[in-house]
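DM from R.C. (forwarded with permission)

"hey, sorry to bug you on a friday — could you get me a structure for this? deadline for the figure draft is monday and I only need the backbone to look sensible"
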Amino acid sequence: MAGAANTEQLLAFQMRKDMAKKAMKVLTPAQKNSLELAFFGDLTHQQITESLGEPLGTVKSSIRGAMIRLKNELEGMWP
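My reply, with the result:
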């Protein structure tokens, strides 16, 4: 029984991972860069501004826009 549960969990994880990758394709390059630095790079907004050479407001807008676009895209994919 444990093997079946683990297989189901693995398949569900892979499905969510594939959906997230597909959803990321709708982002602009600026949105994708900012989002990746914030969530996968674990950088603060200030660190992202320094890394990209962009104003703080631009970075915040890029991240917020990316989150909205991802939410909308994923809502359309989720079964």
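R.C.: lifesaver. The mean pLDDT is 90.
me: no worries. The chain has four helices and no strands.
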